[in-house]
Amino acid sequence: YLTVGQLWYCRQRKLRLDSEFWARYEDDQSRTVVRGAAANPPWVVCMRDRYSVGGFTDFLASVLSFHAYCTDRHWAFKIFSHGDPTFGKILLPKTDWVLKEGELSFSVPDAKVVWLKIIGDIGHRNDAYQYGYMRRELTGRHAQYHVYSNFAWDASRFGASFDELFEMSPALKADVERFSAVLDADRRGWISVSARFAELLGDFKEPEAWRIQMSPEEQEGLIRSALEQVGRIAMLHPGQKVLVASDSRRFLDRAVQAFPDALALPGDIGHVELDKGEAVCHKTVLDFLMIARAAKSYLLLGSGMYDSGFPKRAAQIGGHACVVWRFRPDRIRPAIPQ
Questions:
Q1: Which string of b and e fits 146-171 if b means at least 16 CB within 10 Å?
Q2: Which of 68, 116, 176, 330 fits as disulfide partner to 151, beta carbons 3.0 to 4.6 Å?
Q3: Residue 164 near residue 70 (C-beta atoms within 8 A)
Q4: Nearest C-alpha neighbor of 148 from the set 301, 46, 18, 268
Q5: CA 80 to CA 53: how far, in whole Å?
Q6: Which of 130, 117, 120 is nearest to 22 (CA)?
Q7: Which of 104, 98, 93, 82 is nearest to 32 (CA)?
Q8: How far is the C-alpha of 328 from the C-alpha of 222, rounded, in Å?
Q9: Predicted TM-score (pTM) of this structure
Q10: Does residue 222 sit in helix, strand or coil?
């Protein structure tokens, strides 16, 4: 349960995000106002276009939550994805969730835009708060609800909703099967170890400014410490291969060199909020699905590293545990000139 102070804080943070969104939305002159036909039952449309609600996993978790909500109420569920190949080209529709041309209404009497964005680690978000706030917005009085959201709840249903909504593209399915065969060659399954360094190691770009800067010596200490943790985790799972996932190619290359049983998937690394190229999106979804198929997942969390929801959401869809593995990085002092 949340205290009164925590509820007030969540509410004020939500109001600030709301005001920023509506200022941008109302200034956007490219939206055409059209009259749409009333829908009965209502449509809930998860929107992914120019207004950001977060990365791939934030949007996906919200999609799965709203799909389950609509299923329970026999409402129609749709996804509108513009400029992102993830939903429609990489993850193909298994049900009729793709909007056809002309189906999206911008008529005020028919459609309501709903902005639901919250900031913070998914472990500190309150499902009941998000669910209750969402219920206040989706009253059923409008024909369409255009939902910009990273709200999520009831992760126990994520796996079933994902399987009902999506199937893999041929290219994605081929890669999943190929790397699964490598990781499961001994029929013992595999574990995943994820490390989200953000901009700490200098080889990844964040959508928002990352204020933490590290010297080369500090970067090396962090990499060495993280590799040591990979080794300790691997010792807990003898005979199982280790899938290493990270936003740093520099770290992935070192991990593969250090551990013969480790595998890092090839492909272009990037944040889908900055790079929606098909190669980056394909690699992102591939990492996600391979983590979901692991027997157990770990997230390395050292000083300055990001407490990522990526492996946590993947584990929820896969139905297994994700352990946050905290550690203190070594500090390597620069050599004193002689």
A1: bbbbbbbbebebbeebbeebbebbee
A2: 116
A3: no
A4: 46
A5: 14
A6: 117
A7: 104
A8: 9
A9: 0.86
A10: helix
